[in-house]
Specification:
Elements (H helix, E strand, L loop, with lengths): L2 H9 L1 H21 L6 E9 L4 H9 L1 H5 L5 E5 L2 E6 L2 E11 L3 E7 L5 E12 L6 E10 L3 H19 L3
Antiparallel strand pairs: 1-7, 2-3, 3-4, 4-5, 5-6, 6-7
Length: about 170
């Protein structure tokens, strides 16, 4: 697809939002269905972000921050989070958290048991340059690694847009 076509899709907000909902529904619906069907591989991606670690951290750990870029809606009760995309709900619990540095969400099944997969966000600050990066760790099927990387590029692009870190 030509690059200018991608830009026009993003400029048509209604179409772009519908496109994202479909994409997330397909991704997470397939993710949930195949959670126990095959072995998952770990995927790590690093994204430079021109923002302070404290600003980034609030968008990674609060329901209002996460619902701005990661999910349509997010509810929390203590360490238990419910992520909502269209008609799909996924539950996760925070298993590790260090202010302004990292947070790890372990995915739960319908019985609130851990599935063995998680999403982890680590904020990295280069000691010399003070450049800030976000390291994302996720899991996917081997044949979905490229789709997963593209999904995260879009997600982090949305995060950068919201916090003004383009």
């Amino acid at each position: 697809m030509p690059k200018n076509c991608d830009i026009s899709i993003k400029n048509d907000k209604k179409f772009y939002n519908t496109f994202l909902l479909l994409k997330y529904s397909l991704y997470f619906g397939r993710h949930k269905y195949r959670m126990f069907m095959s072995k998952k591989i770990k995927v790590e991606m690093e994204f430079p972000i021109h923002a302070s670690p404290s600003m980034i951290f609030q968008y990674l750990t609060t329901p209002s921050g996460l619902s701005g870029w990661f999910a349509d809606d997010v509810n929390s009760r203590g360490k238990l989070y419910t992520f909502i995309w269209d008609d799909t709900e996924e539950k996760a619990k925070i298993s590790a958290k260090k202010d302004n540095e990292r947070v790890k969400y372990k995915w739960l099944d319908e019985n609130d048991e851990e599935t063995g997969t998680y999403i982890e966000f680590k904020i990295i600050v280069d000691e010399l340059t003070k450049d800030v990066s976000l390291l994302v760790t996720d899991f996917c099927d081997e044949d979905e690694e490229e789709e997963t990387r593209m999904l995260w590029e879009n997600q982090i692009g949305d995060l950068k847009h919201i916090i003004g870190a383009l």
